Amino acid sequence: MTTLVVVGAGAIGCHVGGALAASGAKVIFVARSQRAADLDAPGLVISDLEGRHDVITAGQLTVVATPAEAAARITGPIVILLAVKGGATLEAAATLGAAFPPGTPVISLQNGVDNVARIAAAAPALAPLAGMVPFNVVLTGGEGAPLTAHRATSGALILQDDAATRALLPAFEKAGLAATLSADMVAVQWGKLLLNLNNPVNALSGLTLIEELRDRDYRRVLAALQDEALAALKRAGLRPAKIGAAPPALIPTILRLPTWAFTRIAAGMLAMDPTARSSMADDLSAGRITEIDDLCGAVVRLSLAQGMTAPLNRAMVRLVGEAKTLTAPQMLAALGLTR
């Protein structure tokens, strides 16, 4: 049996790894400090919008502090599921490269478009593969209470088509994790990044995702950020994949609709747990480094490479750095957008 090593026991790592463990897959979590203690004590609950509620006791979980400890416990095939934030990829990949055999597959379940290249640079002997997680996970509990990793939105994982990922599909299906394969993960990752440009908007709004998306002015900010990204992608000759129900080029138009029309046409976009917030909102609240450089920063870098500027995405990087809650009119004004 293949052993799945989950590196990055945050919301995504806990949900995906926990779902796999609950289904009987052999899973090892690499986690440090408080998160390791949380997993080692009360255990983990996996839940979702459809009513799933799997309780995984601490005795059913294998948790170690380092990749080297994980590698020492394994005989047989290994696949690593990397779920750290983008800014931690280089360090994590370097430790993985030192611990695991050459050719070990590393599936990036991270936001952004740069992490596969980062893994390859830091651990050239490993085999990095792109992945895309479309859903939001809310992680609650800990510090004495069971951790709950609740999938708050829907969607199927998309993994780079490879022998390693093809072999894993039955395990993901058994775990209740819908997954498909793609030969063009660059398009998939850019398609997801366009949607993830809402993360900083939501984080700075101080609202839940539903509350923020019901505000037309916040949606106008997101549409403007997406317009910049789409212009750079077009000049670069890149076509982002359709991740949701609407083609990427049409999403800014839908976002700018009056709210009464938006809520009808884009009802699927609002089908989520009412408490859900973006992961960036959680990071700002906890004082952690955010993924803004992997989102708006990536748009700025692509634009510069094409001889263009992306002033709105650049400004959003600055605003997230300032970490001040902004009303929709304040956010529009900060970006130089008129109401």
Description:
This protein is an alpha/beta fold. Helix content is 45%, strand content 17%. It contains 16 helices and 12 strands. An 8-stranded mixed β-sheet has the order 5-2-1-6-7-8-11-12, with helices on both faces. It has a 4-stranded mixed β-sheet with strand order 4-3-10-9, with helices on one face. Helix 8 (198-205) packs antiparallel against helix 10 (216-236), helix 8 (198-205) crosses helix 13 (279-286) and helix 14 runs antiparallel to helix 15. The termini are far apart. The model has no long low-confidence stretch (mean pLDDT 94).
The 3D shape can be described as globular
The rounded Rg comes to: 20 Å
Total strand segments:
12
State mean pLDDT (0 to 100 scale): 94
Structural class: alpha/beta
Order of strands, main sheet, comes to 5-2-1-6-7-8-11-12
Bin the helical content: 40-55%
Could you list some keywords that capture this structure?
339 residues; 8-stranded mixed sheet; globular
Briefly say what this structure is.
By secondary structure, this protein is an alpha/beta fold. It is 45% helix and 17% strand.
What is the secondary structure topology, with strand pairs?
Layout: E1 3-7, H1 11-22, E2 26-30, H2 33-40, E3 44-48, E4 53-56, E5 62-64, H3 67-72, E6 78-82, H4 89-99, E7 105-108, H5 115-122, E8 127-132, E9 137-142, E10 145-151, E11 157-160, H6 163-174, E12 179-182, H7 185-196, H8 198-205, H9 209-213, H10 216-236, H11 251-255, H12 259-265, H13 279-286, H14 296-305, H15 311-322, H16 328-334
